Amino acid sequence: MLRTHTCGELRLEHVNTDVILTGWVQTIRDKGGVLWIDLRDRYGITQLILDEGVANTTAIPSADLFSVARSLGREYVVKATGTVIERKSKNPNIQTGDIEIRLSNLEILNPAKLPPFLIEDETDGGDDLRMKYRYLDLRRNSVRKNLELRHKMAQQTRTYMDGQGFIEVETPVLIKSTPEGARDFVVPSRMNPGEFYALPQSPQTFKQLLMVSGFDRYYQIVKCFRDEDLRADRQPEFTQIDCEMSFIEQEDILNMFEGLVRHLFKTVKGIDMAEVPRMTYADAMRFYGSDKPDTRFGMRFVELKGTFDTVDLTSGKNFAVFDSAELVVGINAKGCAGYTRKQVDELTEWVKRPQIGAKGLIYVRYNEDGSLKSSVDKFYSEEELKHWVARFKSEGENFEPGDLMLIISGETGKARKQLNELRLEMGSRLGLRKADEFKALWVLDFPLLEWGEEEGRWFAMHHPFTSPKPEDIALIDTDPGQVRANAYDMVINGTEVGGGSIRIFQRDLQARMFDLLGFSPEEAKAQFGFLMDAFEFGAPPHGGIAFGFDRLCSIFGGADSIRDFIAFPKNNSGRDVMIDSPSTIADKQLDELKIKTVV
Amino acid sequence: MLRTHTCGELRLEHVNTDVILTGWVQTIRDKGGVLWIDLRDRYGITQLILDEGVANTTAIPSADLFSVARSLGREYVVKATGTVIERKSKNPNIQTGDIEIRLSNLEILNPAKLPPFLIEDETDGGDDLRMKYRYLDLRRNSVRKNLELRHKMAQQTRTYMDGQGFIEVETPVLIKSTPEGARDFVVPSRMNPGEFYALPQSPQTFKQLLMVSGFDRYYQIVKCFRDEDLRADRQPEFTQIDCEMSFIEQEDILNMFEGLVRHLFKTVKGIDMAEVPRMTYADAMRFYGSDKPDTRFGMRFVELKGTFDTVDLTSGKNFAVFDSAELVVGINAKGCAGYTRKQVDELTEWVKRPQIGAKGLIYVRYNEDGSLKSSVDKFYSEEELKHWVARFKSEGENFEPGDLMLIISGETGKARKQLNELRLEMGSRLGLRKADEFKALWVLDFPLLEWGEEEGRWFAMHHPFTSPKPEDIALIDTDPGQVRANAYDMVINGTEVGGGSIRIFQRDLQARMFDLLGFSPEEAKAQFGFLMDAFEFGAPPHGGIAFGFDRLCSIFGGADSIRDFIAFPKNNSGRDVMIDSPSTIADKQLDELKIKTVV
Lengths: 599, 599
What we know:
Two copies of one chain form a homodimer.
Chain A: E1 18-31, E2 34-41, E3 44-51, H1 63-70, E4 77-86, E5 99-110, H2 127-132, H3 134-137, H4 141-163, E6 167-168, E7 186-188, E8 196-198, H5 204-212, E9 217-225, E10 237-246, H6 250-269, E11 278-280, H7 281-288, E12 302-303, H8 320-324, E13 327-333, H9 341-352, E14 362-366, E15 372-374, H10 382-394, E16 404-410, H11 412-429, E17 440-444, E18 449-452, E19 457-460, H12 475-478, E20 487-492, E21 495-502, H13 507-516, H14 521-535, E22 542-548, H15 549-556, H16 587-593, E23 595-597
Parallel strand pairs in A: 3-5, 6-9, 11-17
Antiparallel strand pairs in A: 1-2, 1-4, 2-3, 4-5, 7-8, 9-10, 10-22, 12-13, 13-16, 14-15, 14-16, 17-20, 18-19, 20-21, 21-22
Helix pairs in contact in A: 4-6, 4-15, 13-14
């Protein structure tokens, strides 16, 4: 090694040791004949010193040495030789703050141009500049720490999975394009002109075949690919923790992977996570209007329809909007009774934005003096509003003096979606969504199918290999939309981090499912014949799960974006602006592949 | 879990325990009212028994139970409930051979068609059938053990690398096509019509950028891709252990990765491997005629040109073939003096085959009586031949009574290549290449460049980022072919398992290299501008290595083929015959990608 120690290693006990350090020049200060250099590497920062007035171990530093040192710029790569001495004014902010290195030699290994932005925690580079010079951005502490976290997450995932008897098996990247699911990236085959490989959206069929092979417990940390229009924070290539088990029931999967998540929290974050609560899809929708509720805070939905069914409305007036709505549903914004009219109007405008799309927002304010004031006072008397208060109480959401009730009405699906957005917004405004608090949740019993209005057919909500609940199988013929799946998602802080299902392992049921999804028998055979064949040669009951690894890392890192947990991410147009990819290729390549571009 | 134990778990201590096992029916024997079933899973085999004559813990087995058992076929998936009992005739060949399970219930979880080949160590399926039904092939012990070995190799690689402070960083799979090196697989970009990503042949530039970023020690077990015509045992997608270090010299890399290989041998095979010897490329070529010599055996080359320079040839005759040859080189086939004329003729024919291409083969036989007999007796007297014997001796290759000298002559490169083949063949015939013996070797000081006769230009022997030896840099302008690189290969048992180099980290030298390789400044900038730019912002000295992981696993597994160490390999036409890929894709997909096939 060109160095004897790293820049994060030296302590008081090393005083008088002769050392060689290598690294990047972070800063230089030159004052009154004394020169300080902060030298940085992955491990830390060490201060180097050159002092005209102080005798070196051998001699006064030479003029040459000063001249080399004064020629340095930020980010120069140097090799510094010297002796560890105790520092007069210690720096408690860095681990090497008790010592410094009195230089006896300094060699420039590589000079550096001034970087386009400062290599510091708070950078002055915008996103575009940071992406173009990603190799400089990666020098920043905060970004490097994210990738170190990611490495630790992968290590601990493997430690847990290996400990549970899982085998990591690599599945192929060049596979076959299938029509179901998202759009595939494809790869023209030169040796088979006119034909294409596809990059896997997940190793789903391969891991199921491994179960048919008897591998019993499989996992893989694996790259997957989806050619979809990139919304913020989606990447065309992403990484999954992909898992599958045989001879299990849903309960076994839930326990095994709750174990994984708790192991990760314990070993990576030092957090003892409580047992992960479970909620059905139906309840998640009813109480949170979302299949991935943020359970760091309560503020559960209370449905108000029917409150007055047994009440003789003294005011004699009905509120037509509510009476005609499929759903009237509210939340209790705790302690928000003090919201001004302006603030409530602003909230109303917020839910009426096109992204949310609510028609309006009704509120009830519970004043500190015990009186109720609402935006529907002309329809309901104070006495009548108390029925809502009672309904909230009976649902465990105490609405008390000082609180603000926010109500949305309309078609059930839309109203829930809108109130979900409002709930999350109020949670943020009230500081209830803390970055350093972690609440996990299993969501269970998803519907097997969802209706595609546009296509006029059923789609698999999870994927076509998901098994229906045995007790619901009869409904497949009579009421497919009511069939529940043996499918489950893990949600942390309102983000879906993983999902999976118990799989179909019988050929007949799998064929029935393809039929339901609009595959002709020929199409099913052409696309998935190998899997259905495999089911005939002794397929065990099996199921699995996949976690989004990039997302899981970002949640553990307390960040919203996954980009900074990926070493070399692509931008929203799918471009790597650093290497300038994708790019045109040579005509010779196109000719060999027997394809033509038609742009 | 559907089971209480696995099929490899039960021992005498479990006798009288009620258990539930799941697995595949391996065999059924039905004899005299007793029925034995061998039940198999990944963990082992357990014998189940049903005996009409023996009282069960609860009752005589029911007729129903017998009827279910008798309906079973090979590879049925079953759930067996029963009690562990001691076996009368123990089976020492299996770990559960002391016990069997007296059945109380048997449930068929999934029936199975008769598999197209037997699921046994020695299969009766040909390669084609095995590939088509790979999920059945993977059930065989031997194939499963290969993948378990692979898992262990990956685990131990990570244990070592993590322990040495390396960080595993995922680099992108969708990158940019570059002209240098092998053919790229490309991926049309839908969002950037007319443009393509390429799949990486290695993460070379990305790992170098990580060094520029200060990551200091990087590794990754990573899929790479090459669209080359597939020779036997090459796969279009393969896996590398990819590594890079900063602030190092070649010696540091050699020590670090010799450490990795020794760690793997120790932990995976229980073998204490000796220190890895080193040899220059020049010596490897001179002594073995190969840059990847199999050093499990000696039989080193001895060059014979010039033997008679100071000798007065008493016979007065010259052998024109040798006199005009650039190289005359022989090996000592120890103990082969007894080869018959027919055997020697057969060897001569062997080296004259087109694959080898030798013009002929000269032999000298050292008879047990001390006389020498050669195929060039009419040119050289016995006394003169003794000069060859002396030359062998002075080179440390004692040629003694009972030995057979085999000599090839011609143009240096060709003669070496031919004798290399012959040496390996003789090593095999003499049983010197044992599958359970492992000899590693570092080959060093490769030439930096090789001349492409057809293209009329220099090519990088390793890759364009490899640094020349500092002492040879001056030769770049005067005699490029003589420049040695800081490049190294690790060879085990005659197979190159890894290779790497110290990299160029200065922009000017990198630009000079591209120039030498025929890149115009514009081409160099377009293809590798980002890397040369990065070198200007403070690049540290760095270098690395990559190991072929599939190949390494096959060597550890004592096998010649890498295919059985890959879960789902492709055949020689790049096809996955199981899933039938590649395949045509929908016109809609082509339209969206703005490409057309022109077949």
